[in-house]
Every structure is written in C-alpha cells, then in structure tokens.
Backbone:
C-alpha cells in the first residue's frame, strides 16, 4: 500500500447529509400518486384460517384494494426460501416448511401477515385493516424451545418439529478425551432470544411502470441484489431484469435487514398486480413481531482436562430455535457459524457438537450481529472460566496454557476451520494491562467496604468472518457463492467512482472504501465517490453481513484498483511511446523508468477517453475495471475482552465499572470507524448480557413487544469503553483486513457474565442478568456461605 | 381539516391537516422535512425530536393541531448559511453517528440540553440523553460529541 | 389514530360546556398519556377538548402555607421552578426525573395525576406530601383522590385546576426505574411533616399507597433500625416480567431504608 490514507482517522464523507437531515431513507421517499399499504396480521401464534371477508374493508372510504393470502396462492407465488441446505447426521436434508408470502390456510406465529390493504392514506389503510375479517380457529401453539420436539407436530412434513439433527467433529475421539480426563467441567446455559431493533424500521416503496413493465422496489436491505434474485428466481414476481431493487440510506441492520421478508415481497407483487406505487413502513410494534429475532439456544456442554489444565475434549449439545419458518440464512447460524467456532482460541484436540434445530410458533430466528459466533463464544468462554474456578487456576493462566501459539499457524481445528494467523497472547496481555488486572483484588476489597460486590470476567473470543470462500460455503450447503464484486470507474477528468456490492448502513463504506482506493491511486479522498445499494447501477453484489465488507468487498476493490493501475501503465506506455515494462506507477504518477518523463494519473485518465489512436489490439479505450473477489479462506478476528462489574446486593443492580476490549482485526484502514464499530458491538453484547430479552408467553403472545418492555440500552447503561488493538494482518486477502463489525457483540457477553458470576461468588445465572435475577443469586450465594 | 400556522426554520408556513395528524406526520409529509424520523410508537426513541417554541419535544406525541402559532426548528434549520451548527460539526468530528437515523433527534436533544444546562459532565450527558435511543454507536462518541459541541456553542456565543 | 373533532377551550366554563355537549369527549392537557393511547387505538374519543388555551393553568404560585401548581404546568416547569426548589425540593427532584427531557417539556402534573398510571411518579408526591387537588368544583384531599389503577375521584367532566402542596423541606423520593420503560418499578416518597412521617409508594402496586406500619414506626423513631423487622405484604404488589411481587416488596423496603438514611444524614 502506498500509505498516505490507509490507517488515517479520516472524518466520514457521508456524515454531512445525515447531520443536516438530508439522508434519504426509504420512508422519506414520496411519489405523486403514491398509495399506502397496511398488513393484516395474525393475532394468534397458531390458527387455521377458515375464511376471509374483505367486503367491509373494501367499502371504506379511500380504500383501493385488499389482497389476501388466497390471492398470493392464486397467483402461484413461491414461498420465501432458505438459502442454506443443512444435512442431518443421517445424511437427510433439512426439513423446510413452505413460508408463504402471506398465509392463506394457517398462521404459525403472532403477527404473520395474512392480507394487505392498499389505500389512499396511511390512516385509511390502517382503519380498513381492522375491518378485514379473518375467521380463525385457534390451535395449541408450540412456544418453548427446549420441549419443542415433544410438542404437537406443527407441519406434516416435519416430524418432532425438528428441522435437522446436525453434528460436527469426531465423537469417538471426543469420548476418548473424556475417558482419560483428570477433571470434567459441566455447564448448562441458554443464549437469550434478542430482537434486533435497528432504529429505522423496515420499509418498502414499490412502483410499477406498465410502460416498461418494470418494478422499482426501494427497500431497507443490506443486500439488494439478493432481494432481486430471490423475488425473481424463487418467488417469481417478475423476470430479474424487470425488477430494480434500491436500498438507499438504511438506518442500521445488524443482520435483520439481510433477509427476504413477506412485506417487501408482497408490496412488489401488489404494485404490479394493481399498477400502483405503494409504500409500507413498519411501526415499531410490527418490527418487534416480524423482524427476524436472534440467538435463542439451549445448551449442555462438558469440557475435559488433564491434571495440568490442558483441554482434552469438548462436547456440546444444543437445541436452537428456528421460529415458525426458516428465514433466509437461518439454518446456517446454529451450525456452520456456531459449531465451527467451538475451538475458540484453544488447542482442544477433540470436539464434538450436536445441534437440533426446532420449529416453534414464534417469529423466525436468523442472523443477528455475530450470528452463531456469539453463541459459540458465550459457551466456550463461560465453560473455560468455570473450569478455571473448579481447578483453582487463574482464568487468564488457564487460557494461556491452552492457546494456539502464534507460531502454530496455520492451525487446523477439529471443527473444520483452518485459522490463518493470530497472536492470542498479545491481545490477552494487552487487555490484562489495560484492565489493571493484577490489582483487581484491591478494588474488590475497596468495593466491599462500600457494600458492593465487585467481579471481573474475561473472554477470549474468535470469530470466522469475511464470508466466505465460495467453494467452502458451497460444500457446506450455501445456495450461493459468497464472493463480492467491485468496480473502479475512472472518469475522464481523473476523479473516480467506486461501485461496490457491499452495502453500507452505518459502517462508513463511503469513507473507508474511498480511502482504500484513493490511497492506491494517489488521489484525494474527495475525488473518490462510492456508489452502492442499487441493482440498476451495479453488476451484482452479495451485500453486507458477517463482517465481510472490507475483507471481501474491499479486496474486490483492491483487485479492481490494481487492474486500473495496470491498464494505466499500458496507456502511459502508449503515450510515452515506450514498452509497458518500462513504466512504473508511483501513485499518482506513471514514470518511464529509463528517463524523467512522467504522466499523471489525471493525464492517463483523460487520454483513456479522448485519445483517438489505439494502435494495439489488446488495448481498448476507457479506464474502468471490475473484479469479483472470492476469498481463499475465512478471516479470523480475535481478541480479549475484560469486564469489571459492581453489584448492589440489596437491589441486584449490576453496574459495568470498566470494560476493556482488545481486538486484532488485521490491517485497519480507518481506526476511528473501527473503534466506532467496536463500541456499537459492545453495546449490543452488553445489552444482551444485562438488559435484553424477547419473551413469549405460553400462548405465543410477545410480552416484550415495545420499548416499554424490551429493554433497549441507553447511554447511561455504559461506561466509556477502553478499546485497544493488536495486529496480525490477514494472510490471504490483499487488504490484510479481517473484519470488525461483530466482534464487540461476540466477545462481550461472556466477559460480562463471567464478571457477574465472579461477583456472585460463582453462582451461575443466565442472561440477561436482570436486577431481580442477580438479587436472587445474591441471596442464594449468601445462603451457601452460611451453609 | 385544520389550518395550522407555523414559523418553521425561520419561515412562515401554513399547513392544512386533519386533527389526528401528529406533528411529525406534518413535518415529514407536508413540510417535506424528512430529517425528522420516526423510530418507535411509544414515545421513547427520540428520533423525532424537534424544538417547539424553544423546547426539545417528541414530535410523534404532539398533534399538529396543538401547534398553531408555534415556532418550530427541525434538524434542517440548525445550520445557518450552509455552515454546520457546532453540534453538527462535533457529531462529525467525534464520529458520533453511524447509520444516521437517530442522529437528527440526538443532535436536537443535545442542542436543547446545552441551551438549558450549565454544567455538563459526561455522566450528566449520558443521563440527559435518556430519551434518545441509538443502536449503532454504543453512545461513547455521542457523549464525546456533546461535550465538544457544548464547547463549540459556548465559543460561538462569546 | 382514529379521527376526532378538536375543540379549543378558552375557559374552564367553556371546556365543561363542550364536554357536556359531547357524547364522548376527553380533555387534552400535555397529551403524553392520551396521544400515545390514541395512536395505539386504545382510546378513540369523538371530541378532544384542548385545555392549553385556558389562562392561568400553568402558574406556579407561592401561597401562605405552600405552593399551588397549575394543572397544566409541565414537569420541566415544576422541576425548574425556583419556588418549588426552595420550598419543596423533593418535588422539583421528582418532577425532574419523570420520563425524559423531551417528555418533561410537554407532560403536565394535572394530566399525570388525572390518569393515575400505577407507575407514574406524581401520585407518590401528591399522596406522600399530602397535597390537595383543586378542581373546577371542589378541593379533594390526597387520601381521597387515587381510587384504583387508572381511577381517581374525579367526575367524568371534572377538570383539575391546580394542586396545592404544603411546604416541606425534609423529604426524599427514591425511584427504582423499570429498566425498559424507565417508569417507576418502585418509587418511594418519604416526607417528614412536623412529627409525622408519611410514606407513599408508587409503581409497586396497582395504585399508589401509603406504608402505614413504616410510617408509625418511623414517626416514633426515625431510624433504619426501627423498621428492620417490618415487611411489606407482597400479595398486593404487581408481578410482571420485570419484577415479581416479592422483589417489588423487597425493593420498597430497601428504598425506604435508603430514604431514611438520606434524611437522617441531612
């Protein structure tokens, strides 16, 4: 890299429009003649639909049309597919009930859409939706994940409500490890169900133009090309070239805007069917009911050690909740994004994991910031900390004894991944120092004098990011390759338009990607514009999730920029009347190596478009290059998080008094943006540990259906985080980057819970550590002491 | 239909709306000032925060019909002569925003806070931002931005 | 929100007349309870009578024996009032902790107590400080005002004009907020009024109530030790996903103890 821009804290180019109120989110778009959609939703978790009566609704003033699940069925629309095939241990394919765009015969979760009202105004649509009469016959729902397999069968084709019974690792070797163990640590835990809550609710505006037979769908998506592919190839609402999907400014996603949902699909279909432009924007209560939820695992596990605390074997059994239907990537989350991460940062020689995924009458569950990797990290780091306590070893020391050494890479784990590089002791050491770990005991004693219980907890996490090498992903069941596209389009005056298949919804790609390309070409960052989020402008793209944008999308741009440089050399050779081999690029200048003659990048760009004389067959006019980058491996960000808490034993309130995060993300383009990503991830991880939980009651009603009951983290829930970095650049991509978007949410929950449990003297509780739960644990801890 | 006369970002405006229109509906759909956002339906997220007669309020929980004769400032009215307000500048410089959706409400709350409170420690800012939810930033850089924006506002006054 | 007719009252008399003329009317004060309920379609009045144009309802006045707060005074106005800060500091403190800053700029004291939300803060102040509620037709003692969850002694058309608080310097309000909504999960107001100790608790039960046993014990001896053996019955407490009845009863006692400590340190 040439180095003047990479690594700099450059202020974000995109901020100006956001801080002045000029961002353009989906709901901001208004069209002349636009109509409004409102969905009729199931009030039950499970019911048969005996019939629809839309007559009253249609009579309402300002109502244009009412479409129901029956219309969807009559038009022969396909169901919403899941893009990742998982095979059970016995080789059978996962079971996938049809996920209708709108239900016609049976509803399977609270809030499932059954009809769409289209009206002249929002209020009219909402009023009429109340008058769509649906004759339901309520059925007994299955809600609890742990007992779902024994519950009433929900789908004829899904015995035991089980999607798959998956396994990974060598069970016999693992059992041998346990047979020779000096000590075995057992744990049972749940990973609490979360609701993503991007602050911009999902929205869509579908416009049909009968003159061109084209549908334009503006929607809140992290991956507009995937939306187009699924709506056309699978649901078949239009031919692919007659659907343009635009994801304009998007107000946060965290995974929840990856997926293909009923509402956007129904709107695109209805706009063509009715010849109208229709907008729908979720109210927050609809987001709670229908955005794909996250996590929701129940797990039992055991860790075998020898007498020195060396890990011998790790055995895991998890039940994962899929909700009512398989969402777009749901099946992969508790399998290839979870089981494969159970080695953590350790040399555990034998690991075996079984995952049973079950259906319940709850909202679909899919990837949420971290997706599988937080669940794996939470399990590994909880049991390691517990094991340290049981054998009386310092938790940092136990980890150190089992780390994969920095000279042991590449390292093949027993659960399918090959880690390319890392230095786990470096991040542990740095975090221990930043946290003043050595002097914790003094702080604990001092807190006790104030009547507070102080605890400290560690978490040494690893994640697999940069999704994903297509060949590996395909072998594991992914329906699409997971490469990324990029184009560097040099304009005649030398400014550059960068087109990327990644999508920015808060990550700052308009700055980071511009930094990367401007650095490579020797341009000012102002001269590079990043374009994304529009299938009408880009070839194809797979979007943003799994901390992949810089590692994969950025690599595509890096390769494309190299191609631009290379073509520039040819043009320079032509202009300077020399051989290509005699031209060197010293950004932003092309030089003749055997003379002082030069051409600037701008001169080359101009010549590329205005030159009249292209003598050679292998040199075309123009200067724009594309690349489709397919990663060679996953990337492996890793680090250590250390949390310190104080508990008020009288009320059970837990306060985070210190949080240290040291992360190794490989090469960093913009440290300011990376730290921001860490902060945000930490807030979501700490939110999971202390505050957030989706609760359904026995009848499948969502108890936490608004901000009155679902606890969103506020500013006063956190201290200032202490963030540090170590760096081992990724070995297999041209940027050296590993990805940073999810680490905060992956590493922090076990650090917090280990600290809470430490403060409680070892009494284990599940997330979230609410005041009442902690207070009860304090009581039982005191009772234990007395006994 | 009600005819509501408002002073909006320094201009006299009249809007005609139904009695059940909320202030935020009118701001977004009739005045086309779409920088004011809606992120919840229980008056908690604060994305719709604007200044009404000099006070930060949640425009989703006010009827437009209650505002006849009022003075309204939205995020679009904060910058003067194309120059960022010190609080806007601070949000940019401190990386106090990511997706930008909560940002206008956050900035409007912060400006009101600085106008009304003398001493603002980071802890006091955290607590005073209770009515604004951000899902992206973890709030750390927002707090830093409010500290810096407050200093900038004081400097501008003096 | 369903459609409705908006009426603007210029006086209490005209407000009452309009209410009488309607089959289904509701008064609009700050709107921070009513508008959310209407948005969620839980309430659908035909007529909404806006009280904001009635003169004098926002005044905060010092009277001979206390402070009279107009029903339309916002929480921010009460929290910021020099009179309130001087003569009833606990009330300024309590008002400054209601909702969030934006809510405090709109929500009103009259609207809050007329609604009697079980998790609202003001009922604890009204009952704990033994305020009087002055309406268009009478004065109601605090002990007679709060009847049950969302129920008060007000007639359907009756309008609160003002709330009269006695001057009380030695009092404290301790709130344990619901982590999600930030409403009071338990809120305890302890006031020392000459020799008498009054304790009003909001959030914990369906409606605000006084902790009689604790009041007696503390009136006799104002110390934590005098209440160490007392408990609050959990069978009357609210029980939800945020806090069980047992835990709420426990928190009430913890907060009372802390309040006593704060006031003893004074």
Residues:
């Amino acid at each position: 890299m040439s180095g003047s821009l990479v690594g700099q804290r450059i202020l974000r180019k995109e901020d100006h429009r956001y801080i002045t109120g000029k961002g353009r989110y989906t709901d901001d778009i208004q069209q002349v003649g636009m109509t409004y959609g409102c969905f009729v939703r199931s009030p039950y978790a499970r019911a048969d639909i005996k019939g629809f009566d839309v007559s009253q609704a249609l009579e309402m003033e300002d109502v244009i049309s009412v479409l129901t699940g029956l219309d969807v069925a009559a038009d022969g629309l396909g169901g919403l597919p899941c893009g990742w095939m998982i095979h059970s241990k016995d080789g059978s394919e996962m079971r996938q009930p049809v996920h209708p765009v709108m239900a016609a015969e049976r509803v399977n979760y609270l809030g499932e859409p059954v009809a769409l009202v289209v009206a002249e105004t929002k209020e009219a649509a909402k009023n009429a939706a109340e008058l769509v009469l649906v004759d339901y016959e309520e059925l007994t729902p299955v809600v609890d994940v742990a007992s779902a397999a024994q519950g009433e069968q929900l789908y004829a084709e899904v015995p035991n409500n089980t999607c798959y019974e998956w396994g990974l690792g060598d069970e016999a070797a693992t059992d041998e490890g346990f047979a020779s163990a000096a000590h075995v640590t057992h744990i049972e835990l749940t990973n609490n169900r979360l609701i993503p809550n991007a602050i911009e609710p999902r929205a869509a505006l579908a416009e049909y133009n009968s003159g061109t037979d084209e549908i334009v769908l503006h929607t809140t998506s992290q991956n507009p090309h995937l939306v187009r592919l699924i709506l056309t190839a699978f649901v078949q609402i239009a031919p692919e070239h007659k659907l343009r999907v635009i994801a304009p400014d998007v107000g946060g996603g965290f995974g929840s805007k990856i997926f293909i949902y009923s509402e956007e699909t129904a709107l695109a279909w209805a706009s063509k069917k009715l010849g109208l432009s229709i907008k729908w924007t979720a109210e927050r209560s609809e987001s709670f009911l229908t955005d794909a939820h996250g996590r929701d695992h129940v797990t039992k596990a055991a860790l075998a050690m020898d007498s020195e605390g060396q890990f011998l074997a790790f055995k895991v059994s998890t039940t994962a909740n899929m909700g009512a239907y398989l969402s777009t990537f749901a099946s992969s989350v508790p399998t290839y994004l979870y089981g494969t991460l159970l080695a953590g940062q350790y040399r555990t020689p034998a690991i075996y994991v079984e995952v049973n995924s079950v259906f319940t009458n709850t909202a679909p569950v899919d990837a949420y910031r971290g997706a599988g990797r937080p669940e794996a990290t939470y399990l590994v780091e909880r049991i390691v900390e517990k094991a340290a306590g049981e054998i009386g070893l310092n938790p940092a020391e136990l980890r150190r004894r089992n780390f994969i050494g920095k000279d042991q890479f590449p390292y093949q784990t027993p659960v399918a991944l090959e880690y390319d590089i890392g230095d786990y002791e470096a991040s542990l050491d740095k975090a221990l120092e930043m946290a003043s770990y050595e002097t914790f005991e003094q702080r604990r004693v001092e807190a006790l004098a104030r009547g507070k219980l102080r605890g400290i907890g560690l978490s040494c996490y690893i994640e697999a990011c940069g999704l994903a090498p297509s060949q590996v992903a395909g072998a594991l069941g992914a329906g699409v390759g997971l490469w990324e596209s990029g184009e560097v389009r040099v304009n005649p005056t030398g400014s550059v338009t960068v087109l990327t298949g990644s999508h920015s919804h808060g990550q700052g790609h308009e700055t980071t990607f511009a930094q990367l390309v401007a650095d490579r070409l020797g341009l000012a960052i102002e001269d590079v514009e990043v374009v994304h989020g529009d299938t009408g402008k880009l070839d194809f793209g797979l979007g943003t999730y799994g901390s992949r944008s810089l590692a994969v999308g950025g690599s595509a741009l890096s390769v494309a920029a190299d191609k631009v440089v290379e073509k520039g050399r040819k043009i320079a050779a032509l202009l300077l009347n020399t051989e290509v081999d005699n031209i060197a690029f010293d950004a932003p200048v092309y030089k003749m190596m055997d003379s002082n003659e030069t051409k600037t990048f701008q001169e080359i760009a101009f010549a590329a478009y205005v030159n009249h004389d292209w003598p050679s067959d292998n040199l075309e006019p123009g200067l724009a290059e594309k690349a489709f980058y397919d990663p060679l491996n996953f990337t492996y960000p890793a680090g250590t998080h250390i949390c310190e808490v104080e508990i008020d034993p009288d009320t059970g309130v837990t306060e985070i008094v210190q949080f240290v995060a040291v992360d190794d993300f490989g090469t960093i383009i913009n440290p300011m943006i990376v730290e921001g990503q860490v902060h945000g991830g930490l807030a979501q991880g700490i939110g999971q540990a202390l505050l957030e939980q989706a609760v359904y009651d026995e009848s499948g009603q969502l108890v936490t259906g608004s901000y009155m009951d679902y606890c969103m983290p506020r500013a006063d829930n956190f201290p200032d985080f202490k963030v540090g970095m170590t760096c081992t650049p990724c070995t297999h991509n041209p940027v050296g980057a590993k990805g940073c978007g999810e680490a905060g949410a992956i590493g922090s929950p076990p650090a917090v819970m280990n600290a809470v449990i430490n403060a409680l003297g070892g009494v284990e509780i599940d997330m979230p550590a609410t005041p009442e739960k902690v207070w009860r644990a304090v009581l039982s801890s005191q009772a234990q002491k007395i006994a | 239909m009600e005819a509501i006369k408002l002073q909006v970002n320094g201009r006299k405006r009249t809007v005609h709306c139904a009695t059940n229109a909320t202030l935020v509906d009118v701001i977004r759909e009739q005045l086309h000032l779409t920088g004011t956002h809606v992120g919840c339906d229980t008056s908690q997220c604060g994305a719709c925060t604007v200044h009404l007669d000099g006070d930060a309020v949640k425009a989703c929980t006010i009827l437009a019909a209650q505002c006849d004769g009022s003075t309204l400032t939205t995020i679009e009215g904060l910058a003067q002569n194309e120059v960022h307000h010190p609080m806007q500048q601070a949000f940019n410089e401190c990386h106090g925003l990511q997706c930008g959706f909560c940002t206008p409400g956050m900035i409007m709350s912060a400006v009101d806070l600085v106008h009304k409170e003398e001493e603002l420690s980071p802890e006091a800012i955290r607590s005073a931002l209770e009515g604004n939810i951000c899902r992206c930033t973890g709030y750390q850089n927002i707090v830093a931005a409010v500290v810096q924006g407050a200093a900038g506002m004081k400097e501008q006054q003096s | 929100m369903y459609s409705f007719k908006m009426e603007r009252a210029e006086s209490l008399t005209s407000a009452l007349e309009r209410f009488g003329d309607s089959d289904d009317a509701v008064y609009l004060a700050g709107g921070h309870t009513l508008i959310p309920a209407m948005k969620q379609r839980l309430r659908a009045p035909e007529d909404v009578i806006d009280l904001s144009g009635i003169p004098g309802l926002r005044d905060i006045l010092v009277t001979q024996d206390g402070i009279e707060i107009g029903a339309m005074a916002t929480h921010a106005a009460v929290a910021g009032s020099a009179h309130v800060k001087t003569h009833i500091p606990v009330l300024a403190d309590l008002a400054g902790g209601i909702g969030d800053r934006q809510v405090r700029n709109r929500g009103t004291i009259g609207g809050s107590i007329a609604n009697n939300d079980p998790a609202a803060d003001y009922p604890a102040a009204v009952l704990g400080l033994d305020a009087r509620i002055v309406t268009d037709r009478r004065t109601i003692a605090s002990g007679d005002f709060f009847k049950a969850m969302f129920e008060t002694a007000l007639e359907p058309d009756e309008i609160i004009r003002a709330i009269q608080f006695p001057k009380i310097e030695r009092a404290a309000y301790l709130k344990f907020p619901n982590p999600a909504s930030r409403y009071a999960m338990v809120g305890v107001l302890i006031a020392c009024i000459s020799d008498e100790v009054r304790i009003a608790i909001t959030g914990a039960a369906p409606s605000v109530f006084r902790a009689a046993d604790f009041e007696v014990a503390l009136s006799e001896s104002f110390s934590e030790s005098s209440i160490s053996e007392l408990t609050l019955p959990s069978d009357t407490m609210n029980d939800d996903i945020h806090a069980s009845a047992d835990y709420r009863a426990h928190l009430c006692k913890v907060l009372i103890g802390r309040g006593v400590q704060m006031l003893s340190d004074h």
The beta strands of chain B are 2-8, 11-17, 49-52, 55-58, 70-73. The first helix of chain B runs from residue 23 to 30. Chain B touches chain C through 28 residues (CB under 8 Å). The radius of gyration of chain B is 15 Å.
